[in-house]
Amino acid sequence: MFLPERINVAEFLKPSYRYIKLFLLGLLNATLMTVLIFIVTEQVSAANNNPHSFADFNAHLGQSFTVYGGAMGEKVWSKTVELKLIALSAPRKNGSTEQFSVRFQGPIDYPLAKGVYTFENPKTDRFELFLEPYGADTSARYYQAVFNLIT
Question: Which segments cross the bilayer (predicted)?
């Protein structure tokens, strides 16, 4: 039987520290994933009160929305900017996707650049849309948001 004369404890325990370190990193990773799943679930729950389908937007056709912008959701201008939902394109369904666009009319004096804006309406919660300018005439500016939804 072979018995070492002397055991180097530091060398003997090195692999154990490595396994403990890997275990703790795995535990941290699992905790972070749990938090992330909770956050995403909460956002999806909140989104259920927001227009997110053709039928939802169609129910709000002709209504006005207050538009906010910026990182903190400040109003875009010192004057409240109202956009009216004026049109929806006919939805196209292709397999498991639904495609449509919504068009808004806004004041000529307050142009909005292409970007993400927060919308608010008395009948909906706040929600965000990516808008892009669609055109203008002498009395108004027009904007659209395009949707490609997985159904």
Answer: 20-40
